[in-house]
Design a protein that fits this description.
- The chain has 3 domains: about 100 residues, Helix Hairpins; about 50 residues, SH3 type barrels, CATH 2.30.30.60; about 100 residues, Alpha-Beta Plaits (2-Layer Sandwich), CATH 3.30.70.
- The protein is about 55% helix and about 20% strand.
- It is built from 8 helices and 8 strands, in the order ααααββββαββαββαα.
- Helix 1 packs antiparallel against helix 2.
Length: about 270
């Protein structure tokens, strides 16, 4: 057989061997990546890290491992990856400079994942936004406001400010102020309101409902009923409480403060 034919045959055999090795490396690498991702996910979930954050971490790890696998495949075919690594490093520096502001949000996201001042489903006030947390990411936190507006707030903005978590404690206080007329018996009103507070749906028994005079106005004293409920029931308790108070005062024929207001305005 001529030497040229022998060299061509050797090249074909080497090429086939490299292709076969690359195929084996691909399947083995993908298997190893899937195992690593599975174990990492279990470890993160065991630490009770937010599910959204877990997806971010797994996606980032999957990207890094696949890049490493591609470099390994290029090496099988004799392609130098040093140049690619240098290009990626340079691109990384350029991107890092361009998006340096995002690094602060990323670092704040890591701190929040560790300190866990709130979790998905909590009702909070953070970064000047009030609402329910629906997504906790590495760069931003998604909050749905009470009027159902999805709002993205940078993690650094949240972390550098004051965070109020209304879902952290088992119950929340609801204040229901009631304007009485000057001629009304405040003691009778206090007794009526405290008894009524026990009947409002979803009001908890302890701490018990209590009422007291909270301020004075020209129309008369203001008696405030304080009840407690779960955060999820807050607005329902406010609305039902106001309605039931109005109905109870009307049924008990309590004097209305509007007459005193007319007299004061006429004077």
């Amino acid at each position: 057989m001529p030497p040229a034919s022998t060299n061509l045959l050797d090249l074909v055999i080497q090429g086939l061997l490299r292709v076969g090795l690359a195929i084996v490396l691909w399947f083995v690498g993908r298997l190893v990546i899937s195992i690593v991702l599975r174990l990492t996910r279990r470890a993160l979930e065991a630490r009770k890290i937010d599910s959204t954050a877990v997806r971010y971490m797994i996606s980032a790890l999957n990207l890094v491992l696949n890049i490493i696998l591609i470099f390994a495949l290029l090496g099988v075919f004799g392609i130098q990856t040093t140049g690619f690594a240098a290009i990626l490093a340079g691109a990384g520096v350029a991107i890092g400079v361009a998006v340096s502001g995002l690094l602060a949000h990323f670092a704040a996201g890591l701190f929040m994942l560790t300190l866990r001042p709130f979790k998905v489903g909590d009702f909070i006030v953070a970064g000047g936004v009030t609402g329910t947390v629906t997504e906790l990411g590495l760069l931003h936190t998604k909050i749905d406001t009470p009027d159902n507006v999805a709002t993205m707030v940078g993690n650094n903005t949240i972390f550098n400010g004051t965070i109020q978590n209304f879902s952290a404690n088992p119950y929340r206080r609801v204040l229901l102020p009631v304007q009485l007329a000057n001629s009304a018996d405040h003691r009778e009103a206090i007794a009526l309101l405290e008894d009524l507070g026990k009947k409002i749906p979803n009001v908890i028994a302890a701490p018990a409902p209590s009422a007291a005079i909270s301020e004075f106005k020209p129309a008369g004293p203001v008696v405030t009923l304080a009840v407690h409920c779960n955060n999820n029931d807050y607005w329902q308790v406010v609305f039902d409480g106001n309605r039931m108070i109005r109905e109870a005062l009307t049924a008990a024929a309590f004097p209305q403060p509007t007459e005193e207001l007319r007299v004061l305005s006429a004077a």
